[in-house]
Amino acid sequence: MKKTAALLMAAWLVAGCSPTTEEQSFYGVWKIEGFTSTPAAGVAEEQAQKILGQTSVYSKHIAHFKEIQCLKPSYVVKTLSEDEFKNQHGIHFESLGLTEETAKQIEITCFDHPMEDSMTLLPKGENELLIAWNGLFFEAHRKTGSPFSMR
């Protein structure tokens, strides 16, 4: 009995120490190519235009958008109905080109320092991503896959 308990404890410890190597579909380098504004936008259109052409990076090790950089990101995935999405963001799926009945929403939090403005990702497909920031939805297209090896 003691031997079985010891083996179970050892297996549990080893399993708990193994690194997570799952690569998320939104990991990669993304080029920002357009945006949609909501009535709650906290940024002027001229400022949003300046963000076009910039790159954004998301991986296990970093989340980077504009001047916002997080070296220890946490990604919380939620599935929202259109009503929930409209209540939260003030915009309909159709306005963003979302065609499904639900949307996968990825909220980014930062362990190394809190972000002043929240940031949310909404995958539209394998190579398209919406970046919600300050009442704007930036449309980004994948430049490359994950920028860092998954160690």
UniProtKB/TrEMBL annotation:
Protein name: Uncharacterized protein
Natural source organism: Ectothiorhodospira magna
